User: Which sequence fits this backbone?
């Protein structure tokens, strides 16, 4: 048999965006390989999510169910998927490149004498798979060699989840044979880091304020923005030096080093002492009235303008977008 | 506890990337090399476990002659001895091929714990540790920030997405891939380097371990990314700029 | 007492020669001033004197012997060379005999001290004779021509010495400057009294008739004072009387010279076994004057570090454990945090009048802690790790530097240009440092000087050198030396005094660095060809430690500043300039305890009322930028001397120049 198997992740009864992106990647691959796409879901009971996937333009949905798949274990998932793949013998197995997938797919691929082509950003005819190398400083194009299933995982955000159109797909079940003894690890329940008063280090979103705010009385402006975003509030050194915000909110060489997904620098010119504390952020947004401020050199997005106008507008826009 | 740490030598973070004539890899001639970052954390975790519970830390690395300097660095930081798999064609092997090489060298050591970094800074496959576990038939966990010894084995702290964590119990022996940032790294010291001179480095030719298998996955060509990081200035009125930024945060950064 | 009158013509009671005089003789005739000496002593007194002298001498040795032994027992200084002797002799003459440092840095107490010192020198012969008299073998006759001259000569010094010691006593017990310590040192008071009494009993002998009981009493009082004084010397800081001349003569000679590590087991100052003879000698030489403390940025801003206490801590260590001990040096007698609060500004070493070289000691203690991994500091480890993996202290990607070079259209050095423009970490990555480099490049282009930058540059290793990481420093120095040699660089110019110092002096351990100069020196040389700005603002110039004390460059940056404005001086300037707080790797070690050094200095600079603060080091600039940002007043403008100079250049587009 042939075909493309896309393995989706059930996140508390929902299919996450990145899994839809994997479906999109599988559909793109099928346009080159001219093979049907089947989606697989693993769990103890996948009925809800299976129904959601069945309403999309895939050729079939497989519910891989077993009580031992109630919560994720690498042993359980590897054994279950090994059996499914041996049974269906797809040419391609596509995954979303999540932390969970990174945990077991290399072992799964190894069972078939294969290597995963992981974190793929685009797929071209051939098929050729492109992924980043040297931490994004290069791209590499890979192809699968020889026979056996080709394992691929796709990077978050690389494919358009909204390109997956609706449809109706048949749903079938697959019951792997699993024994409790095969599962050697015992996972605990997920938890968040102990709620500390300020935890900039693990914050995903940070709104940071500098001298441009002029006086302490103006701080609510940025506090509102942080609240609207669900972000932590941070500051450059002069703000903390003046006692406007506590020292533990200081980002920079003498304060904390942070690497959030988004760092919004407001009224911060970008002295080196500050830059070294936040340069590793994945996305930097700078709002400053001085177009020559060094902060713009490291920013991904910049707004040159008066923060007293831009910040309230941004807060309003975010509130609107979140509704 | 006997711990084997598999480490990789990678081009230094600031190394210039110039694509070689064949277009399959970068010019290695004037590169400077360093220990892969998450491997440094794996080594640190191993050293801390040894300091707490005693035992031995053996570092294992595959690669050509130059890898010796990185092995020395690991010994300088406190590893007890090292195994260097002499291998000129590491780049031609896929993740499975490399893991096979390492697994064959680890097998006779019969360690309690096999540690690797989460992924390499150059190829970034992020698979070696997990495949090692599979080949050595060990339970494993990946993205580990902290390891604690328990009565039955170990308890590890695993990083999940978006600020979540999870504890996992594993029996020993086991394999773990270590995420960067979980521990405080120690810096290399002069004393460490001097002491490392007398430590054992066993060299094994790759050919003695396994013949290079045909790779299941082949790197065809490399290229510079089309889009370099540039600052996008969002213009217009405050409202327009704010709206444009929200758009970007939502659809390009996926942060909203 | 008839002070201030020439001793040779003083009016004095005539004393019949070879006869006992009647006390209170009243005929006053002018005659030469003569010292009275007791006649021959009875045997009992001679024996008593001999016994007391032996007792005093052995008491002295009982204490001094072990000290001497501990110094000799210390490890040999591997890099010690007696040559050049000329320099040593000159230092000795200038600093010891002429007391140049003592006087220059603290004129009033310095002169008082010099009087005491010269008094002691003049007294050497007198004292020798004095003791000989006690044994009946006096060789200087008060009647003889030379004797008469010499005693009077010594009397002048005795007088100035007595005044000097009185002055020092008043200073210590009544004026009480802060750096002498909060606790009054009664032992100092007692010594001062002894010295004063020695002089008084000597001078008094000019006023009593020879042969009188009074003269015998005076002789004995003088002698007993002497015999009490001698054994006290090695018990107190007055040990410097004996040791400091040797310390000055034997010192390493060049400022902040960090000795190379000797052999595979040398990691710096870890334990007693690492103390070298020079370090031990210096530890025992400290006179506790507190000049080092007075000028120390750490000690003045509430840190643990006090350079004097470091030296005294080593002395206590030697006294308790000795130089063969493996007890860590950082522990009981020296707190481990103290050496790491040092900015290596070098004021202490520069000021020290007894030849103590604080920097090799402070850096040596850091080396001991860092080279063995004992120093555990998050910021420090971060700095080391970013240099182990990357190229710069700031942990930035090298690509950022490339972007800057492209933007500025700096040519790449290819051997055809005259200068290699060394950017340094600050010049390559710090937004403000980049502005300085860009402006300096404009100056060079205006002058038509050809220059190029290296394609790749690593940190010179300055912060890790000062923090005592020899492994990393060696790697950085060697990598840079190799890159410079490959590119055939002959001359380097840079905006950073730390780079200048490290390239020129510290790299020597690993090769031959190219010629290097600071941009202040370059600009000063070409000043006549550079335009003056139309407006001449007042500019206060801040001396960077690494340009001033480390390189002795004070005039050049001042001429550059004067070219673009009216030069003002801060209260502390030139060789007494106060540090900005960044040196010694401290710029990378996170928040300081106590007051910030940069704030203290920035306030001082602002207090001059200058419109502009002129700097000559990107680290100083960065520290003051931060400090001025925290003050809410309208701060003066902060500009590097390159920016001051570039202001007056005609605006031109850079493309035509490149």
Assistant:
């Amino acid at each position: 048999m042939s075909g493309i198997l896309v393995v989706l992740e059930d996140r508390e009864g929902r299919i996450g965006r990145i899994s839809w992106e994997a479906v999109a990647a599988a559909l793109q691959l099928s346009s080159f390989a001219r093979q049907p796409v089947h989606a697989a879901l693993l769990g103890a009971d996948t009925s809800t999510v299976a129904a959601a996937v069945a309403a999309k333009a895939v050729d079939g949905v497989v519910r891989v169910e077993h009580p031992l798949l109630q919560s994720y274990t690498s042993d359980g998932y590897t054994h279950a998927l090994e059996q499914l793949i041996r049974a269906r013998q797809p040419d391609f197995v596509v995954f979303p490149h999540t932390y969970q997938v990174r945990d077991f797919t290399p072992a799964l691929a190894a069972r078939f004498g294969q290597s995963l082509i992981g974190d793929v950003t685009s797929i071209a005819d051939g098929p050729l798979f492109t992924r980043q190398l040297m931490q994004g400083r290069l791209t590499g194009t890979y192809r699968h060699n020889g026979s056996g299933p080709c394992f691929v995982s796709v990077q978050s955000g690389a494919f358009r989840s909204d390109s997956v159109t609706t449809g109706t797909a048949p749903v079938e079940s697959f019951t792997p044979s699993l024994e409790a003894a095969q599962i050697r690890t015992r996972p605990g329940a997920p938890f968040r880091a102990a709620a500390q008063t300020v935890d900039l280090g693990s914050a995903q979103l940070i709104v940071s304020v500098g001298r441009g705010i002029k006086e302490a009385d103006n701080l609510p402006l940025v506090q509102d923005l942080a609240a609207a975003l669900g972000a932590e509030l941070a500051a450059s050194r002069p703000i903390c030096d003046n006692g406007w915000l506590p020292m533990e909110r200081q980002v920079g060489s003498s304060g904390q080093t942070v690497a959030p997904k988004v760092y919004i620098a407001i009224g911060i010119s970008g002295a080196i002492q500050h830059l070294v504390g936040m340069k590793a952020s994945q996305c930097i947004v700078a709002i400053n009235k001085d177009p020559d401020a060094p902060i713009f050199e490291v920013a991904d997005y910049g707004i040159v303008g008066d923060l007293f106008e831009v910040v309230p507008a941004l807060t309003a826009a975010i509130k609107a977008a979140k509704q | 506890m006997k711990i084997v740490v598999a480490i990789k030598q990678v081009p230094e973070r600031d190394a210039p990337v110039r694509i070689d004539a064949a277009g399959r890899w970068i010019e290695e001639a004037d590169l400077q090399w360093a220990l892969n970052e998450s491997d440094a954390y794996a080594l640190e975790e191993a050293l801390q476990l040894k300091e707490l519970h005693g035992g031995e830390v053996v570092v294992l690395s595959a690669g050509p002659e130059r890898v010796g300097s990185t092995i020395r660095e690991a010994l300088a930081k406190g590893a007890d001895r090292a195994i260097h798999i002499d291998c000129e064609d590491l780049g031609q092997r896929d993740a499975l091929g490399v893991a096979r090489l390492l697994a064959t060298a680890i097998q006779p050591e019969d360690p309690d714990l096999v540690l690797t970094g989460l992924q390499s800074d150059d190829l970034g496959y992020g698979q070696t540790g997990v495949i090692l576990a599979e080949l050595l038939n060990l339970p494993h966990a990946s993205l580990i920030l902290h390891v604690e010894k328990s009565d039955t084995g170990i308890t590890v702290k695993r990083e999940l997405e978006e600020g979540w964590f999870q504890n996992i119990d594993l029996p020993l022996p086991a394999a773990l891939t270590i995420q960067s940032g979980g521990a405080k790294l120690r810096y290399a010291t002069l004393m460490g380097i001097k002491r490392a001179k007398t430590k054992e480095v066993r060299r094994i030719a790759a050919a003695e371990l396994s013949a290079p298998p045909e790779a299941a996955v082949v790197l065809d060509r490399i290229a510079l990314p089309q889009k370099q990081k540039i600052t996008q200035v969002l213009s217009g009125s405050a409202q327009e700029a704010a709206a444009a930024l929200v758009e970007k945060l939502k659809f390009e950064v996926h942060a909203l | 007492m008839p002070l201030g009158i020439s001793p040779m013509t003083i009016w004095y009671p005539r004393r019949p020669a070879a006869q006992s005089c009647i006390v209170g003789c009243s005929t006053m005739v002018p005659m030469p001033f003569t010292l009275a000496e007791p006649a021959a002593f009875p045997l009992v007194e001679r024996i008593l004197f001999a016994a007391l002298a032996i007792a005093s001498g052995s008491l002295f040795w009982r204490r001094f012997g072990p000290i001497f032994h501990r110094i000799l027992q210390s490890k040999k200084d591997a890099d010690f060379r007696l040559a050049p002797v000329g320099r040593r002799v000159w230092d000795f003459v200038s600093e010891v005999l002429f007391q140049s440092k003592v006087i220059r840095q603290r004129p009033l107490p310095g002169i008082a001290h010099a009087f005491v010192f010269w008094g002691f020198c003049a007294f050497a012969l007198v004292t020798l004779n004095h003791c000989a008299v006690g044994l009946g073998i006096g060789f200087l006759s008060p009647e003889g021509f030379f004797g008469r001259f010499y005693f009077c000569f010594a009397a002048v010094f005795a007088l100035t010495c007595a005044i000097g010691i009185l002055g020092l006593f008043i200073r210590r017990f009544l004026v009480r400057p802060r750096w002498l310590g909060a606790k009054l040192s009664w032992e100092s008071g007692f010594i001062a009294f002894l010295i004063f009494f020695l002089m008084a009993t000597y001078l008094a002998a000019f006023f009593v008739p020879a042969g009188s009981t009074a003269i015998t009493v005076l002789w004995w009082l003088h002698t007993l004072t002497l015999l009490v004084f001698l054994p006290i010397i090695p018990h107190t800081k007055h040990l410097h009387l004996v040791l400091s001349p040797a310390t000055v003569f034997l010192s390493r000679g060049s400022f902040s010279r960090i000795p190379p590590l000797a052999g595979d087991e040398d990691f710096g100052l870890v334990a007693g076994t690492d103390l070298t003879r020079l370090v031990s000698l210096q530890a025992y030489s400290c006179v506790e004057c507190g000049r080092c403390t007075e000028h120390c940025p750490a000690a003045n801003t509430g840190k643990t570090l006090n350079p004097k206490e470091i030296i005294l801590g080593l002395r206590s260590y030697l006294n308790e454990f000795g130089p063969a001990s493996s007890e860590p040096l950082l522990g009981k007698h020296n707190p481990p945090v103290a050496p790491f609060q040092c900015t290596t500004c070098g004021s202490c070493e520069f000021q020290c009048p007894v030849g103590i070289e604080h920097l090799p000691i402070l850096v040596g203690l850091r080396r001991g802690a860092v080279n063995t991994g004992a120093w555990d500091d998050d910021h420090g480890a971060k700095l080391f790790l970013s240099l182990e993996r990357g190229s710069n202290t700031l942990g930035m990607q090298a690509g950022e530097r490339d972007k800057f070079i492209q933007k500025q259209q700096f040519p790449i050095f290819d051997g055809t240009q005259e200068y290699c423009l060394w950017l340094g970490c600050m010049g390559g990555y710090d937004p403000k440092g980049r502005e300085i480099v860009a402006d300096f490049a404009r100056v060079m282009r205006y002058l038509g000087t050809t220059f190029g930058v290296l394609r790749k540059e690593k940190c010179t290793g300055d912060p890790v050198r000062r923090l005592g990481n020899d492994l990393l420093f060696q790697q950085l120095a060697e990598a840079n030396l190799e890159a410079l040699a490959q590119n055939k660089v002959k001359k380097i110019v840079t905006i950073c005094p730390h780079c200048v110092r490290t390239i020129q002096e510290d790299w020597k351990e690993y090769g031959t660095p190219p010629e290097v100069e600071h941009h202040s020196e370059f600009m000063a040389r070409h000043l006549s060809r550079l335009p003056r700005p139309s407006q001449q603002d007042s500019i206060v110039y801040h001396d960077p430690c690494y340009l001033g004390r480390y390189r002795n460059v004070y005039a050049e940056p001042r001429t550059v500043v004067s070219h673009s404005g009216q030069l003002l001086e801060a209260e502390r300037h030139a060789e007494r300039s106060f540090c900005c707080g960044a040196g010694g790797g401290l710029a990378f070690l996170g928040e300081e305890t106590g007051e910030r050094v940069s704030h203290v200095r920035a306030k001082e600079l602002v207090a001059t009322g200058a419109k502009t603060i002129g700097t000559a080091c990107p680290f100083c600039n960065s520290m003051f930028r931060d400090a001025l940002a925290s003050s809410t007043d309208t701060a003066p403008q902060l500009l590097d001397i390159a920016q001051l100079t570039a202001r007056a250049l005609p605006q031109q587009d850079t493309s035509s120049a490149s």
About this structure: The two ends of chain A are 46 Å apart (CA to CA).
